[in-house]
Amino acid sequence: MNFINKLKLQADGKIIFKNFSYLSLLRLFSIISQYIIISILVRSLGDAKYGLFVWAFSIIQYLVIVINFGFNTYAAKYVPENIEDPENLNRVFSAILSFKLFLFFISSILFLFLVSNIPVFTENWLLLLILLGFGLGEAMFPIWLFQGKEKLEIPTKIIFTFKMMLVLSTLVLITSNEHLLRYAFLLTAVQIMIGLAGLYFAFSKLNIEFIRVSKNNLSKIIKEAFPFFIGAVFGKSFHFLAVFLIGLYFSMEDVAGFDISFKIMAAIQLPFETLSTVIFPSIARTKNIKLNEKFIFISLALALLLWMLTYWQSAFLISLLGGKELLVYTGLLQKLSVLIPVVVLTYFLGTNTLVAFGYHKQYNYSFIIPAIIYILTLAFLWKTDSMSFEAIVYSRIMVDVLMAAYRLFVAVKHRLIFSSR
User: Fold this and answer.
1) Alpha-carbon 364 to chain mean position
2) Count of alpha carbons within 13 angstroms of residue 59, beta-carbon side
3) pTM of this prediction?
4) What's the first-to-final CA gap in the chain, in angstroms?
5) Within 10 A of 277 (CB to CB), how many other CB atoms are there?
6) Which of 22, 157, 191, 204 could form a disulfide with 152 if both were Cys (CB 3.0 to 4.6 A apart)?
7) pLDDT value of position 8
8) Could you tell me the mean pLDDT of each successive run of 10 residues in the chain, 421 residues long?
9) Helix axis angle, 389-413 relative to 339-349, nearest 10°?
10) Residue 77, pLDDT score
């Protein structure tokens, strides 16, 4: 607590410390459980079938982006700013839940049409159809509400319980390369249960009520969230697009190597993402620029050290997660490790800086501009028959560097960083 007090958090200190502890446990367990599951799947299904699962799941993630519609960012800021207005929170909750379920229904119809008519999807129609239910679980789970109300102990307990069920059931039931569809069903079932549990606790513990929302209120919320949706479409599709193209042009083994390398990166970035998520409501409420600066500089220094450590121990990390068969992707992890400090800087300069201080348009531009350059780069590679595994990897690195650079430029321009210098 002395560290928190030194950061001058005052009354927010205990809340941040508590939520950081809960979210750290949640993210840590999520990463550990994910790694256990990956190790089981790679060894049981084989590299190719694991790669096929990752490829199919990347397609479902596009559906999830549409369903979430940017609400996770928009509402996580909106809730703490209206924490004393229960009626308004009920209205926002009801509008968001209704619209997300509506988006799931519409997206599912379009998705089924594509699966029925595009050969590359038709070949794996049953796998994609099972994973479609994952989107329903995402639509129901109000993580933004728990984050905004700074009650992260609730989703921590929910996710811990059901993810543990997934780990144990995967360990017992996924034992051969014939069990790909079985695992897809387990994953989808667990996500739907997480969504239902989230709704139950929102109603029972947070005193949220589902009420009828007028068309005007619904339109207002959709309009306000739309810029965040555009940003999410561009921003969160970077990785999924890379996975999709690698699976389309190269091999599912390459998809597995690429995905496992990113999973390792996610584990290393975990503490920074957690800290960024936890302090966001307090920064949005207090507008404390100097506090935000301290977190940025300390986190960036630590991220630089972790970059060097990851580069040095890349072979060990790859073999630990994917086995010796995937050691050929050691060089890939070394290339991608440069993104550790880049992504950490992106976290803190995004929601915690641009969104928290009201620069919503610039925040969304930070996704859109790099994404356009990324898409044009991939289009050029395709048009000139220059598409290669390495080209996709370097393009993926480029887009994160551009995003961090743009956010840094905006933050410096508007004195949201280096403000005391």
Assistant:
1) 16
2) 28
3) 0.70
4) 28
5) 21
6) 22
7) 46
8) 46 59 70 81 85 86 83 69 74 87 90 83 88 91 80 84 91 89 94 94 86 83 79 71 84 85 82 77 78 87 93 88 79 91 90 84 86 89 89 91 93 81 47
9) 40
10) 64
Can you give the chain as a three-state secondary structure string?
CHHHHHCCCCCHHHHHHHHHHHHHHHHHHHHHHHHHHHHHHHHHHCHHHHHHHHHHHHHHHHHHHHHHCCHHHHHHHHHHHCCCCHHHHHHHHHHHHHHHHHHHHHHHHHHHHHHHHCHHHHCCHHHHHHHHHHHHHHHHCCHHHHHHCCCCHHHHHHHHHHHHHHHHHHHHHCCCCCCHHHHHHHHHHHHHHHHHHHHHHHHHHCCCCCCCCCHHHHHHHHHHHHHHHHHHHHHCHHHHHHHHHHHHHCCHHHHHHHHHHHHHHHHHHHHHHHHHHHHHHHHHHHCCHHHHHHHHHHHHHHHHHHHHHHHHCHHHHHHHHHCHHHHHHHHHHHHHCCHHHHHHHHHHHHHHHHHCCCCHHHHHHHHHHHHHHHHHHHHHHHHCCCCCHHHHHHHHHHHHHHHHHHHHHHHHHCCCCCCCC
Whats the size of the chain, residue-wise?
421
Take residue 307 and report the two structure tokens written for it.
């970059």
Q: How many CB atoms lie within 10 A of CB 300?
A: 15
Q: Name the residue with tokens 């930070």.
A: 366
CB 406 within 8 A of CB 354: no
List the domain boundaries for the chain.
2-413
What local confidence, expressed as pLDDT, does residue 76 receive? Answer: 64
pLDDT of residue 223: 83
